[in-house]
């Protein structure tokens, strides 16, 4: 079985799962029933990692996604200049662990 991968990032505090992924997921599901994988995603510190990581996992449950691949990199060059890693931020790491523990993913 295969799936469809999409990517998206939480850059700003105003970002939500629906604003980052919702429209794209709806468009994909209009032409295929394949599961959707968040094939590259992260929540930047500028977006408010602790709160928005929770929103990410809530959105994954609501939209019944297959899973995610976290972009775990400090990106100091480029237009976004954010450190997407969570391992140096205890609150963000706790939010991620909580989100994963409560997640029931779609099956491919």
The string of secondary-structure elements, in order, is EHEHEEEH
The portion of residues forming beta strands comes to: 15-25%
Q: How far apart are the first and last residues' alpha carbons, in Å?
A: 6 Å
Helical content (DSSP H or I, runs of 4+): 25-40%
For the report, how would you describe the main beta sheet?
3 strands, parallel
> Which of globular, elongated, flat, extended, rod-shaped describes the shape?
globular
By DSSP (H or I, 4+ residues per run), the number of helices equals 3
Total of domains: 1
- The radius of gyration over CA amounts to 14 Å
The residue ranges in which pLDDT falls below 50 over 5 or more consecutive positions are none
Number of strands: 5
On the 0 to 100 scale, the average pLDDT is 91
Which structural class best describes the helix and strand composition?
A: alpha/beta
Would you kindly provide a written description of the structure presented here, covering whatever features stand out?
It contains three helices and five strands; from the N terminus they run βαβαβββα. The mean pLDDT is 91. Helix 1 (17-31) links the parallel strand 1 and strand 2. It has one domain (4-101). It is an alpha/beta fold. The strands form two sheets. Strands 1-2-3 form a three-stranded parallel sheet, covered by helices on one side.
């Amino acid at each position: 079985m295969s799936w469809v991968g999409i990517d998206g990032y939480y850059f700003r505090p105003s970002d939500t799962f629906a604003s980052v992924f919702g429209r794209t997921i709806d468009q994909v599901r209009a032409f295929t029933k394949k599961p959707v994988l968040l094939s590259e995603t992260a929540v930047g510190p500028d977006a408010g990692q602790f709160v928005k990581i929770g929103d990410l996992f809530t959105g994954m449950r609501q939209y019944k996604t297959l899973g995610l691949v976290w972009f775990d990199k400090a990106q100091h060059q480029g237009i976004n200049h954010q450190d997407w890693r969570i391992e140096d931020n205890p609150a963000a790491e706790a939010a991620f662990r909580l989100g994963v523990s409560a997640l029931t993913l779609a099956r491919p």
